[in-house]
Amino acid sequence: MVDLLSRLSVQECTRLCHRVVDGLCGQQPPTRADYSSTWTLEEWTELNNSLISLFRLAVYNNTSDEKVVAVLSSVGNSHTDAVLSVLRARREEIHTALLNRTNSISFATLQDFDWQLKLAISSDKMASLHIPLLSLGLSVKENGILRPVAMEMDREELNMLLGSLDAANKKASSVLNSLGNELENIAPVDQWHGNDLGGHLAGSLVGLYT
C-alpha cells in the first residue's frame, strides 16, 4: 500500500514519514484527520501500518538501501528518496525505540539452562514414592545481572511448563509473521528469530517422562 504515497508531494511525503517515525519513538503520531481529503479511512490505516512496518523492520534487520528501494518500487523515485532520507536520518532513534519497547516487555532473558532427572523414593508422609522428578536450573540475566533459578517438577508440572513455552513460541512466530507481511522480500521470516533458547529448552525436555 506504500504506492498511496504518490498522492502527496515529495515534501508532504517526507513530513508524513517523519511523523510516522515520531509515533514509533513515542512522540505524537500523524492523525487521519490531517489527511482525510487525501485517503479514505481504510487507505490511511493500511498506509500508516505499512510505513510503520517498513521503518521498524528495515531497522530491525539492518536492511540495505537497495532492498528498501525494492519494497518501494511502486512509488516514484522522488518519493522513494524521501522515505530513504527519513530512514537514514532517524535510524538510531528507531533502533533505540525498538530496544526500549523490548525492554519494557521483559527485563529478564534466559542465558543458559541445565537439567537432571531423578527419582523421589520417599517422603516424610509416605515410605515409598518412586516418582520421577525433573531438576531444572536456569541462568537468567536481569538488569545486567546473571542469577540462577532452580526448580523441581513432576510430570504434570513439566507438561504445564512445556505448554507455556509452546504457546509463547507460537505467539512470537505469529507476531513476526504479521510484521513480515509488508516486507516479506527483505529477509526470510526464519532469519528474524535469532537464538531460540526457549525453543531449545522445550526440545530438550520433551519426552523425558515417556
From TrEMBL:
Q: Determine the domain of life of the protein's source.
A: Eukaryota
The record's section on InterPro entries has: COMM, COMMD4/6/7/8, COMMD8, COMMD8_HN
Alphabetized Pfam families for the sequence: COMM_domain, COMMD8_HN
Q: Where is the COMM domain?
A: 109-176
Q: What is this protein called?
A: COMM domain-containing protein 8
Organism of provenance: Takifugu flavidus
